[in-house]
Structure formats: structure tokens, C-alpha cells
Specification:
Helix content is 37%, strand content 2%. The chain has 280 residues and is mostly helical. The chain has a domain at 92-190 and 210-238: Cytochrome Bc1 Complex, Chain D, domain 2 (Orthogonal Bundle). Strands 1-2 form a two-stranded antiparallel ribbon.
């Protein structure tokens, strides 16, 4: 090997060595623990930085998370604060009712409500027919007299055996369902006087025959014998075909807006007797 070739070989080796040293230097810098041991707080883990030793700090008073302002109280709760200090329901929707709203309410009602209440709202849904706890008959006198926001409140918080649907149904859709329930109630109790002039109304029996449905489609619905719920006699005021009530209508409960008069012995005794009877 000549002197020139040896010098060339040494220069190449020197360059390779410098490159390897640079790579090792970069790796050494990247392996520092600054990112691994960064000063951060892990949720639900304690810390000695704060006096209360909690890493999760309480929300600053007066702040609202993005998307959680809920400024319209009636829209999000279905209640308003009454003059007596109690929350009250209202027979009103927080927005205008249109056919789009009713169609949306019908769609959501058929998805979430019909398994228990049935498509006509008489409380004889598919799972009730198979022994589930009876659902409310939305067409009876008691539920027809309930304000619209009552249905929103029940869907939000649940009632009795009915679970709440606040996670499944958005507030705007709960109001749409409430509007459709009112339309459903009107349809089950409608009369010829409610029909606009010049409109032809076909009897339900004729509609059933035209669509090839059995004659029983136009007759009052009956509670199946296989269910644990006993059918009640048909009530004409509850409409057709959902006029067969599945169970007695629950009594309407009202909260008195006035305090009990003092010094009234008869009232005091009756109230005490009623409280003892209910176990309160």
C-alpha cells in the first residue's frame, strides 16, 4: 500500500469516527430524563405541591365549562321557580312547534318509548305484554291533564320503574317527544268537530280493509292474557283504538301552595292520620 492510499484510508476512518461520535452525542442528549420526569399532575393522584395534597384542583367559582352554560333553565330542566319557592312545571314548549319537530318527536318516540308505551301510547307495549312492569297509559284523563314539561321532566329523571333517558335523548329531542305525546293524545280523543271543513275522514275500519289489515285492527285493543297485568274494561273517553286501559289510572298528585292553618284541630288530626297511613 502506497503512502497516498494510506493517507486516504486514514481520512475516511477519521470521518467515520467523527460521524459516529456525533450520532452518539445526539443519542445521549435524547436520553435525558427531562421529558420523563416532567412536572405534571396525574388525575386522582396526590401531590405535595398544594396544601390539600390534591393534584386535581377545584373549579374556579363562577366559571362554566365550554358547552355547559345551560342558560335557559326551562329548556334544560322543564321547570321554573314558582312564587312559593317550589319548582313548577309549565304547559308550554321552549320553542315553536312545527311539523319537523313533530316528525322528529314521532321518530324518537317510536325508538325509545314504544317498547313500554306502545305506538299509540296506551301503555301496552311489547315488553309489558311479556310481563314487564305496566307503563303509563298516556291517553287517560290523568296523563292528558299533565303539562308538557312534565313529560320532559320524567324523561330526564325517570319515574317509578321507568329509567331516565337523559343520556340517550338530547334535551331538544325530549321536548320534541313531549310535543308528539300531546299530538298523540289529541289524535286518540279527536272528534269530527276537530276536523277542518272540507276534509274527508275515513273510518278506521275502512282504512284497515283498504290496507288488507284484519278487522280486529279497528277494534279496541285488549291486554293479552299472557301478561301479569289484568286488563281493565274499555273506557270510551280514552279514545280508539287505545281505549282499553291496562290498569287503573294513577291519581293526580298536587302540592298545596298554602301552608296549613294554625289552630285547626280537625285539619291537624286528619293530616296526622294521613301521614300515619302513608308511613311518613
Amino acid at each position: 500500500m502506497t503512502m497516498r492510499s494510506m493517507q486516504r484510508t486514514l481520512r475516511v476512518r477519521r470521518r467515520i469516527g467523527l460521524g459516529a461520535a456525533a450520532v452518539l452525542a445526539l443519542l445521549a442528549v435524547g436520553c435525558r430524563q427531562d421529558m420523563h420526569n416532567q412536572p405534571k399532575f396525574v388525575p386522582q393522584r396526590g401531590t405535595t405541591f398544594f396544601a390539600d395534597h390534591r393534584s386535581v384542583r377545584p373549579q374556579v367559582a363562577g366559571t362554566v365549562a365550554r358547552g355547559q352554560l345551560d342558560e335557559d333553565t326551562y329548556f334544560y330542566t322543564g321547570t321554573v321557580m314558582g312564587a312559593n319557592g317550589y319548582r313548577e312545571e309549565r304547559d308550554a314548549l321552549p320553542f315553536p312547534v312545527t311539523m319537523t319537530v313533530l316528525r322528529r318527536g314521532e321518530e324518537r318516540f317510536n325508538i325509545y318509548c314504544t317498547p313500554c308505551h306502545s305506538r299509540v301510547g296506551n301503555g301496552v307495549g311489547a315488553i309489558v305484554q311479556r310481563g314487564y312492569t305496566p307503563a303509563a297509559n298516556l291517553n287517560d284523563d290523568v296523563h292528558r291533564a299533565q303539562p308538557l314539561s312534565h313529560y320532559f321532566y320524567v324523561m330526564t329523571h325517570g319515574y317509578g320503574a321507568m329509567p331516565d333517558y337523559s343520556a340517550q335523548i338530547a334535551p331538544v329531542d325530549r321536548w320534541a317527544i313531549a310535543a308528539y305525546i300531546r299530538a298523540l293524545q289529541l289524535s286518540q280523543l279527536a272528534s269530527m268537530a276537530d276536523v277542518p271543513a272540507g276534509t274527508t275522514v275515513q273510518p278506521l275500519k275502512s282504512v284497515a280493509e283498504a290496507k288488507g289489515l284484519p278487522a280486529s285492527f279497528a277494534e279496541p285493543w285488549k291486554m293479552p292474557m299472557a301478561t301479569a297485568v289484568h286488563a281493565m274494561p274499555p273506557i270510551q273517553s280514552e279514545g280508539t283504538p287505545a281505549m282499553a286501559s291496562g290498569y287503573p289510572a294513577p291519581p293526580k298528585i298536587t302540592v298545596p301552595h298554602e301552608a296549613m292553618p294554625k289552630g285547626n284541630a280537625a285539619t291537624t288530626k286528619s293530616t296526622a292520620a294521613a301521614s300515619a297511613g302513608t308511613g311518613k
